[in-house]
Amino acid sequence: MATIEASNKLDRFTSQLSAHIWGHRFKEGQRGPEYVLEFLNVLFGASYSLSHEYYHRKRSVGLRKFIFEGVKEGSGSNDILVLKEEEKQKLVQAVQENNVHVLKQFLKNLEVVLYNTTGKEADRSWFARSLYPLHESLLYVELRKKGKDLSFERNFFARGGELYFLMLGHGTDKHINRRKFIENRFQQLLTKNKIIEKVVDKISSAFEEKEPYQDRTCKLRSSSQDENVPALPPSAPQDNEQLFEGFADELERLLLIDLDIYEMFHLLTSLICFQLARYMHERALIVPSQFTYFFDCLDGINKPITQQAASSFEQHENLIKQKFEHEFEQKVQESLGSSDHIEQQLPLWKADPEIFFEKMGLSQLRSRKGIIETMLLRCNNADDVSGKLKDIVREAVSDQLKKNQLNITRVLSRDGGFATYRRGSASNYRYTISDSFLQMLVFTKVKPKEKMEYNEFLDVLFREYGIVIGVSQAKESGLYEQSRLNVRYFQDNEKALRDKLRHNGLLIEFSDATAMIQNPYASTAEVSYA
Question: Using an 8 Å Cβ cutoff, are 373 and 351 in contact?
Fold first, then answer.
């Protein structure tokens, strides 16, 4: 019941449908950097072990109070966070800094600022704001305020980050050396800045925070269907095994480059967002098949290319819509039973519609419930239930469900730097390549201090991701013939990517025909593969 009460918008029917496809649970409203922060929180709380069965959560209320004093409690509230005088005195004594304000400003500048679709800063409460994890001591979970109390709520905080943790666990089951490297490398990155740890310890000691041990523990795996435990669909470890192993391989390659956690964080955001979007798309396939991502590298200046990139994005959204339709049909058929069963139960449902709503998992439905009940009372036989009534139920739940899940993939693609949103355009979303996303692609495909021929790089992106940029990939995928575009458009798109790579210091050109992709960073470790 906790999940239903916490969501307040999605009823049990839609929650179960979504969980059946992708797992429990991805949530609308979660931003790209938050997926990374959640994953790091889980990994840190699990003692940097991808095989742990549980993790510990940190509140760090005192640290947040110190940093975000003067911030209001979010949308719809005029309450401002103000420290008590005794708290201020304890802070001065504990920190023992001549200028507490300078320290506060330094930590405040580490805030991960989130933006909405209009480009404005998201209106977040002080207890829901996060920091760049320059050290593990700056990691803490998002809290929720109930009355005057701040509390953990798993369904409010950890969602995609937990599922990504589980994906990496499955993806490294057969690659133990890779798992150890990922675990050790993250621990190295998040424990390097010892000075920050000392400062945070001083601040926290001033607030004398004590947390119940059991309240901080959250399960990661469970044999029972516990709604407070994250869970991938039962078939995912087998159906998506190759994908999960690819995720771990890509993450390992990115972690090999010698960068600090701040620089790495932006690349991790692009990588994890791209991986989760691919996971959602792959799970949305009703029949296993190859799908492509066409990227507009010309930044919207070429209309045919822009439209093709928008069409590619729309095709993937249609995958999700079609998957919902497919799962809906199966779910309804399973819930209603045979025609004979419907005929037998219909008088009971009409006498007490709540029995019908409970059976369908629609008890918590808020909108259109009256419309469904009116149609139910008009049903005279099983054909009416399987026809008109089912159509009304579909309209009531699928629009909201599609909207929520489409928003998830839109946020992942936008915050991951591989899609652009243009307000007022007929094709609002299209696949594009940001600098951060492009850097991530290079660093996960070209080893540190090594090079790769440009055309080979394009072929690798096509083989592994279905990414289409230039002429060769467009022809091999069938997109060239399907789009009916002049070959020059794909040539211009390919040239634009070369320009982006050169701008980022990732391309060496020897001639018009010869160019090499380079990874300029040194390697942080030598890895032996299992």
Answer: no
Copy the structure tokens of residue 106: 């330094």
The whole-model pTM stands at 0.91
Q: Which amino acid is located at 436 in the chain?
A: S
Pick the more confident residue, 339 or 396. 339
| Burial annotation 448-476 (CB, 10 A radius, 16+ → b, else e) | beeebebbebbbbbbeebbbbbbbbbbee
Distance between CA atoms of residues 37 and 81, nearest Å: 24
Distance set, CA 267 to CA 175, 274, 446, 454 (Å)? 23, 11, 15, 21
Digit-coded pLDDT (tens) for 25-72: 787 778 999 999 999 999 999 999 999 999 998 889 889 999 998 888
Write down the residue that tokens 């991701």 correspond to: 465
Which pair of structure tokens corresponds to residue 143? 């809290």
**pLDDT one-digit tens code per residue, 150-167:** 777 655 545 899 999 999
DSSP string across 453-492: EHHHHHHHHHHHH-EE-SHHHHHHHTHHHHHT--HHHHHH
Residue located via tokens 């055309």: 455
Please give the Cα distance from 411 to 399 (Å, whole number). Answer: 18
CA angle, corner 414, sides to 37 and 122, nearest 5? 60
Residue 108 CB: number of other CB atoms within 10 A?
Answer: 16
Q: Where are the domains of the chain?
A: 25-165+192-232, 289-307+423-526, 321-409
Residues paired with residue 80 on neighbouring β-strands, in sequence order? 72
- Checking if the pLDDT of 430 tops 70, the result is yes
Quick one: DSSP state of residue 24?
Answer: B
Token couple for 478: 């069938």
Q: Which residues of 179-206 are buried (b: 16+ CB within 10 A; e: fewer)?
A: bebbbebbbebbeebeebbebbebbbeb
